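Give me the fold.
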Amino acid sequence: MHQTIEDFITTRELAGRNETARSNRECLTQFQAWLDRAGVVAPSATTDDLEAYQRYLADEYRTPAGLTLALSTQSMRLSAVRSYYAWMERRGMIVANPARPLRLPKSRGHTIVSSDYLTLQETTALLQTQAARVQRYPDGCHRWAQEVRDLAFIAVAIASGRRRGGLRHLQVADLDFQRNEVRCDREKGKPGRVLPVATWAMAVLRIYVKRARPVIVWQKDNGTLFTGDRTPRLGKPTIMKMLRRIHAETVAACPDLDELPSKRLTPHGLRVTFATLLFAGGCNIRSINELMMHDRLETTSRYTPITFENLRRAVQAAHPRA
């Protein structure tokens, strides 16, 4: 890739925006490949060049499965291109920003459906299933410590609504057991803040930090909360493998939960579960917006589907003649 693209991605990494940097690298690598075929140098690209790239994404590009790109994927790739040229303009590396006239394709916002989150009963069953795994192993052994770590990861995900990247980068020093709070330094490049966490989840974290984590951690100077067995922090494949295993065991242990087998358990699904459980419990959407660290209420509203029962409770609670 062109050196300016590498420098742009490096600034993302230095700012702690690792997930954004990874996504930008993927998008801009594909952009660079198109530029090479077109015989264009990245800093010298014109608006006409970028519009041609936009048409290529919309009309010509095909996925390995032979499909066209979804509008959201087109928008993501073009957004990385726009950010790159805006970065160069701010640093005086180009006179004018050729990407400014680009208009990102609009797609309908994803509406949260029941398969995207767990109900309270399903959440309880999930936690109980993992707690039962902890009981299978002798207290203090390495396997026991791993199971406690997995339980703590799920507990803090459900009780705090943090993104996967935020969970992976949590530090032991971020926990305040006296006040039941967690400090989130950065998520998606946003400034950090302190957020409350449910008491029961902090109790699980306390057991993990005091008794289980010392058994797992292999670097004594590693302050990462959720450490891997051979890595400084839990890897993404390890997290997904763990969630798939717990999901399968919960389905087998609770055949009465009819909808659970059709749901795909992911870190984002646990984040959505956090929001929907708060909303179902009567929490107002503005507070959920703050806890989720969303920029816009519109985004939060997609995480809080309104059921008929929600409407019934609202009428009974607020209407003077209800």
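The longest helix spans residues 18-38.
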